[in-house]
Write a structure and sequence with these properties.
Order of helices and strands: EEHHE
Structural class: alpha+beta
Largest sheet: 3 strands, antiparallel
Distance between the termini: 38 Å
Helix content: 25-40%
Strand content: 15-25%
Shape: flat
Radius of gyration: 13 Å
């Protein structure tokens, strides 16, 4: 069985909030799902888009990215 791959994306919403998205969806499929999401929404919020992806059965979550120095 092939190993599950995770993808990471930077996403901005209509509030100009930056979040990082971790999901199991390759870029071309995310673009397709985003187009579908935009057809039913007037404003775009990251948390709602994540819920939309999860409702479609995909693994997706907003992750926090922090700096580390050493």
């Amino acid at each position: 069985m092939p190993e599950k791959q995770n993808y990471y994306y930077k996403i901005y919403d209509d509030k100009e909030v930056l979040n990082y998205l971790r999901c199991s969806i390759p870029h071309d499929k995310v673009e397709e799902l985003l187009n579908e999401y935009e057809k039913s929404h007037q404003k775009y919020f990251n948390s709602e888009f994540i819920s939309f992806l999860q409702g479609k059965g995909y693994e997706a979550e907003i992750i926090k990215v922090s700096d580390i120095s050493y």
